[in-house]
């Protein structure tokens, strides 16, 4: 009958589309002898590579003066609110700095804390001219602190061969710069070991 011929033609065309890698004779052979398992071929999608956004290099940052503080902004009074924020941050970090708190626990938290806004004093140094410098830390780099003093002078103090003292709510902590040569972001994951004596 006419209908069966149309059905046969449709099936043959359908199978040819479904199994494009097989020849007509192979398809007919499969139809005559066993059941047909249709295969679906996916078109391979070409993945578009994402372009990584590149940041500025250290040289470009220096040329653009991204980390430089303008002379008109180098005033101690401007950064006093930053110091007040830092004190509140440390109190929250150390759960209030209570008198019965264990000093070594507070010390370990201070070593990992962000020091931007802290008031520090250089207590010991191999270079006598650094001793006595006191001010608010404005920027911390791997090897130096940038400190603004009460005289509105911006001082760049190296960490190497210097000991800094930091006071908050009567608790005084000492930072040995030679063992502290890390970026602020790296210090949070660093494990500091307790040592009996440390030389400059």
Automatic annotation (TrEMBL):
Keyword flag Phosphoprotein: yes
On subunit structure and binding partners, the annotation says: Component of nuclear RNase P and RNase MRP ribonucleoproteins. RNase P consists of a catalytic RNA moiety and 10 different protein chains; POP1, POP4, POP5, POP7, RPP14, RPP21, RPP25, RPP30, RPP38 and RPP40. Within the RNase P complex, POP1, POP7 and RPP25 form the 'finger' subcomplex, POP5, RPP14, RPP40 and homodimeric RPP30 form the 'palm' subcomplex, and RPP21, POP4 and RPP38 form the 'wrist' subcomplex. All subunits of the RNase P complex interact with the catalytic RNA. Several subunits of RNase P are also part of the RNase MRP complex.
Top-level taxon: Eukaryota
Primary localization class, coarse = nucleus
Q: What is the lineage of its organism?
A: Eukaryota, Metazoa, Chordata, Craniata, Vertebrata
Specify whether Transit peptide is a keyword of the entry.
Answer: no
GO biological process: what's one of them? Answer: rRNA processing
What would be the name of the gene that encodes this protein? Pop4
Q: Which GO terms describe its molecular function?
A: ribonuclease P RNA binding
Q: Where in the cell is it found?
A: Nucleus, Nucleolus
Q: Name a GO CC annotation attached to this entry.
A: ribonuclease P complex
Could you tell me which InterPro entries the record lists for this protein?
Answer: RNase_P/MRP_Rpp29-subunit (IPR016848), RNase_P/MRP_Rpp29_sf (IPR036980), Rof/RNase_P-like (IPR023534), Rpp29/RNP1 (IPR002730)
Q: Which Gene3D superfamilies match?
A: Ribonuclease P/MRP, subunit p29
What name does this protein carry?
Answer: Ribonuclease P protein subunit p29
Tell me which family the UniProt entry assigns to this protein.
Answer: Belongs to the eukaryotic/archaeal RNase P protein component 1 family.
Keywords attached to this entry: Nucleus, Phosphoprotein, tRNA processing
What role does it play?
A: Component of ribonuclease P, a ribonucleoprotein complex that generates mature tRNA molecules by cleaving their 5'-ends.
């Amino acid at each position: 009958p006419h209908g069966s011929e149309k059905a046969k033609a449709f099936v043959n065309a359908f199978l040819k589309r479904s199994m494009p890698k097989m020849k007509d004779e192979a398809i007919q052979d499969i139809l005559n002898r066993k059941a047909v398992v249709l295969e679906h071929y996916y078109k391979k999608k070409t993945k578009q590579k994402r372009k990584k956004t590149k940041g500025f290099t250290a040289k470009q940052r220096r040329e653009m003066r991204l980390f430089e503080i303008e002379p008109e902004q180098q005033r101690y009074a401007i950064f006093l609110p930053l110091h007040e924020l830092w004190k509140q941050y440390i109190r929250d970090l150390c759960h209030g700095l209570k008198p019965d708190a264990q000093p070594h626990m507070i010390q370990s938290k201070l070593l990992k804390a962000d020091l931007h806004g802290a008031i520090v004093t250089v207590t010991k140094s191999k270079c006598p001219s650094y001793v006595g410098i006191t001010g608010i830390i404005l920027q911390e780099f791997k090897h130096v602190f940038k400190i603004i003093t009460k005289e509105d002078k911006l001082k760049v103090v190296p960490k190497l061969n210097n000991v800094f003292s930091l006071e908050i709510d009567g608790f005084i902590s000492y930072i040995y710069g030679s063992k502290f040569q890390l970026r602020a972001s790296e210090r949070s994951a660093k494990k500091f070991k307790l040592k009996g004596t440390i030389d400059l």
